[in-house]
């Protein structure tokens, strides 16, 4: 039932983010396919103009840029709350009185957040793929899978950071403000000085896309993904330690 | 020894910086009893309860609840399985409905009783579909108490349980406490409402500035505490009555009032030796005992 509590606690935030992201991606890709098709004579004749294919994948790449922005915004918001926030608003007592360890409390919270983050990446891209199939212009599922993988595995570090911050800072507005501040600052600083380590570019597919065909390479930046996942795991672990040590 | 007591602390202390919230607390709460934890605001009652439940760590000292060491995280989980706790201010999850929070709480405890849950829901007239955040303070308090009383725990710990309740609900709470104790649960509750404590408790612990001033059964307090009003032809020196057990002496004209925690007979004997004209001995209520104990402590500290 801790999962049930975690779901009820985040349900409104998740469903709002979910609806926003899915609707945006569906409408964007539907409109983009319509525009590309309208410009292509072969398309209207029922043929797929290979020259237009790159244009479609460029639009999918652009879709990923928007999706990354909205996804990070969503997972940072989903990472807020938890036992430290409950402590600040005075509702930590019933949670701490439950016969469960703090590690499990935090673990369930992380688990629910990870599932929601995955849903926020998978469902929009599946809706994009569905739109493309319905429009008679199916996109490569491998591309869809790669974008999802980059978003979830590469971007999990953003959710982990949000969880860690909310385990250290109880403020309702302070915690998300700090998290967003770090996201923006990191994107700017890494882009300026350590471009190769910029997670934002890793997640958007900037490091893997072929700028001629706009197809993602078969060789994804596995090292970057692994490093990002390792950082995320360390931050989740640190958040559990922070909650275990905290006094309420 | 362990079986006799559900809560045992030894030199339990908690400091926040230079401020000592709880000082070397040696507490023993007997099994099957209703023990009241009295103290002023900021006396350290809630801090003690939080330490017992593992919400905060003691600075020093040790303690056990139902034989489980409070400092050990694994044992703390085990003890919480057998303890029902209602916190001060009755915090609950505002985003859940009454039905959801009852279902949620039920899933954690093997000692949950569906029949009690249904009975309490009926008695408390709680709206199942309403969100907790839209409940009145009184209803929230009733819901918090329901979550504790729908179980058959070994120990019930309540922090200011009657706060926010109307007289009818308070009466129901007190009767429920007695009923739970008669079913075998030990009850440990903090309160400012001395009249309620007097009605249901059989043991009283008084905490003041983090230190335990009194740990006694209510019956023994009732038997030993006396106010002795004496009238003399000429008022004798107070020192004549400064004997063990005498907490305070008040004088007015030829009249002297002696507050004694014991040794009332010795006071009366001395008074007769000093040609007392009138002697009137009255038992002291818990309220006066509490006030006297706290004042005595303040005088001692000065």
Overview of this protein structure:
The complex is a heterodimer of chains A (248) and B (302). Chain A has one domain. Helix content of chain A is 78%, strand content 0%. In chain A, helix 1 packs antiparallel against helix 3 and helix 1 runs parallel beside helix 6. Chain A starts with a helix and ends with a helix. In chain B, the strands form 3 sheets. Chain B has a 6-stranded mixed β-sheet, with helices on both faces. Chain B has a 4-stranded antiparallel β-sheet with strand order 2-1-4-5. In chain B, strand 4 and strand 5 form a beta hairpin. Classes of the chains: A mainly alpha (248), B alpha/beta (302). At the A-B interface, helix 1 and helix 5 of A face helix 2 and helix 3 of B.
Along the chain, the helix and strand elements of chain A come as HHHHHHHHHH
**Low-pLDDT segments, ≥5 res of chain B:** none
The largest sheet of chain A, given as strand count, sense and whether it forms a barrel, is: none
Give the topology string of chain B: H per helix, E per strand. EEEHEEHEHHHEHEHEEHEEEHEH
SSE layout and pairings?
The complex is a heterodimer of chains A (248) and B (302).
Chain A lengths: L1 H38 L1 H4 L5 H29 L4 H7 L2 H5 L5 H33 L6 H28 L5 H20 L5 H6 L17 H24 L3
Helix pairs in contact in A: 1-3, 1-6, 3-6, 3-7, 6-7, 6-10, 7-8, 7-10
Chain B lengths: L4 E12 L2 E12 L3 E6 L5 H8 L7 E6 L2 E2 L3 H9 L1 E4 L11 H9 L7 H11 L12 H13 L5 E5 L7 H16 L3 E6 L2 H7 L2 E6 L2 E7 H7 L1 E6 L14 E7 L2 E6 L3 H10 L4 E6 L2 H16 L1
Parallel strand pairs in B: 3-8, 3-9, 6-7, 7-8
Antiparallel strand pairs in B: 1-2, 1-4, 4-5, 9-10, 11-13, 11-14, 12-13
Helix pairs in contact in B: 4-5, 5-6
In short:
The complex is a heterodimer of chains A (248) and B (302). With 248 residues, chain A is an all-alpha fold.
